[in-house]
Specification:
Residues 43-182, 211-356 form the SIS domain. Homodimer. With 366 residues, the protein is an alpha/beta fold. It has helices at 8-14, 16-24, 44-49, 59-76, 85-88, 111-122, 137-141, 160-179, 185-207, 209-217, 232-248, 284-296, 330-348, and strands at residues 52-57, 80-84, 99-105, 126-131, 144-147, 224-229, 251-256, 273-278, 300-306, 318-322. A five-stranded parallel beta sheet has the order 2-1-3-4-5, sandwiched between helices. It has a five-stranded parallel beta sheet with strand order 7-6-8-9-10, sandwiched between helices. β4, α7 and β5 form a beta-alpha-beta unit. α2 runs antiparallel to α9 (185-207). The chain binds 5-amino-5-deoxy-1-O-phosphono-D-mannitol (M6R).
Length: 366
């Protein structure tokens, strides 16, 4: 059932181009200008009425939600709060009939996420869900469901679920922006065209396994690693750090690059790996200045950059490039080398990749 692979995780990383293609299928109309989400029953009027969105999820799905905040606020201009379900459900959040609660869950069975969904409903909010499992509790109870078509995800470390969740979020953001008139046709076309190239670009990245393995060799001897970035890169840093922690057991911290000086930089020592994400053009120079600061303290810089980046090579000890895409979409691509990095770090350390210690695939109890 592993189809010739040693581990489900690597199989599932490799399945991402197909999973992305399947999740995209039929959801962009022939004119290339509109998103079709026939399953979303929210009327134009209901969409107009939404004043706030709460995205609620756990773990990797929460990290997908963080990307959702950037994409939705940028394109739809509705305030979005993102919260882990175990916090949201116990803090009496402000929810009413002008609120959309969007839960994200691969399994559709995570106890806290389901409880958050129910809280949203009982408080009068409209509840939408992004999930991978047809007929799951979340799918049954949400008012609207957008499925990711990633196929079964078996490995504990979530990979293809995350990238397809991002795709679903982008589609939803463009869909809402169009209905609320907050996006030009030109911007829509640009994003939708870029989205259609993503599966092929993901295929290029999953093929670059040797590169990831090389980089992993430079990380495994450390008990600590840092992931830094700004904006959407920061959200991917969080996901990259989670992947590394859960399967390699290397302590990894993700930091918003601008926060380093407020404490964490004290931990930077000679040779420590700092995975630096530099894919966001508007904050590139800012992040670069932080990278230079940690480099000056002899950190080992592993830079994740866009193809054609001419500057990063001057400071980076290792470079990982991702194919050119729309700046809003880089998380789908930049996460793939980080998934591979975590995978090879885990292998090199002799861990059980698919069943990391103390973790279960689906957390159905609190
Ligand atoms: O099934 P869900 O998406 O609700 O699961 C949420 C988290 O438990 C899950 O993403 C977890 O963090 C993964 N092990 C991360 O790789």
């Amino acid at each position: 059932e592993k189809g010739g692979y040693d581990h489900f995780m690597l199989k599932e990383i490799d399945e991402q181009p197909k999973a992305l293609r399947d999740t995209l299928r039929g959801r962009i109309d022939e004119s290339q200008r509109k998103v079709r989400l026939d399953e979303v029953k929210l009327t134009a009027k209901e969409l107009q009425d939404i004043q706030k969105i709460h995205i609620v999820a756990c773990g990797t799905a929460y990290h997908a939600g963080l990307v959702g905040k950037y994409a939705i606020e940028k394109l739809v201009r509705i305030p979005v709060e993102v919260e882990v379900a175990s916090e949201f459900r116990y803090r009496d959040p402000i929810i009413n009939d002008k609120t959309l609660v969007l839960v994200i869950s691969q399994s559709g069975e995570t106890a806290d996420t389901l409880a958050a969904l129910r809280l949203g409903k009982s408080s009068g909010a409209r509840v939408a869900a992004i999930t991978n499992v047809v007929g799951s509790s979340v799918a049954r109870e949400a008012n609207d469901v957008i499925y990711t078509w990633a196929g079964p995800e078996i490995a504990v470390a979530s990979t293809k679920a995350y990238t397809t969740q991002l795709l679903a979020i982008y589609l939803l953001a463009v869909f809402m922006a169009e209905k609320r008139n907050t996006i030009s046709v030109q911007d829509r076309v640009e994003i939708l065209q870029a989205l259609q190239m993503i599966p092929e670009q993901a295929a290029q990245l999953v093929a670059a396994k040797d590169r990831a393995k090389e980089v992993a060799k430079g990380v495994v001897d450390w008990n600590s690693a840092f992931f830094i970035g700004r904006g959407m890169d920061y959200t991917v840093a969080l996901e990259g750090a989670l992947k590394l922690k859960e399967i390699s057991y290397i302590h990894a911290e993700a930091y918003a690059a601008g926060e380093l000086k407020h404490g964490t930089i004290a931990l930077i020592e000679d040779g420590i790996p700092v995975i630096s994400l530099l894919t966001q053009p508007d904050v590139y120079e800012k992040t670069m200045s932080n990278v230079i600061e940690v480099k000056a303290r002899d950190a080992k810089i592993i830079a994740v950059v866009n193809e054609g980046d001419m500057k990063a090579a001057d400071v980076a000890d290792e470079m990982i490039t991702i194919p050119k895409t729309h700046p809003l979409l880089t998380p789908i691509l930049s996460v793939i080398p980080l998934q591979l990095l975590a995978y090879y770090a885990s292998i090199l350390r002799g861990n059980d990749v698919d069943k990391p210690r103390n973790l279960a695939k689906s957390v159905t109890v609190e």
